[in-house]
Amino acid sequence: MEKAIYKRIILKLSGEALAGEKGFGIDPDVLRDIAAQVEDVRRLGVEVAIVVGGGNIWRGAPAGERGMDRATADYMGMLATVLNAMALQDALETRGVDTRVQTAIAMQQVAEPYIRRRAIRHLEKGRVVIFAGGTGNPYFSTDTTASLRAAEIEAEVILLAKGKVDAVYDADPLINPEAKKFTELTYIDLINKGLGVMDSTAASLCMDNRIPLIVFGLNKSGNIKRVVLGEKIGTYVV
Question: Does the reported pTM lie above 0.90?
Answer without folding.
Answer: yes
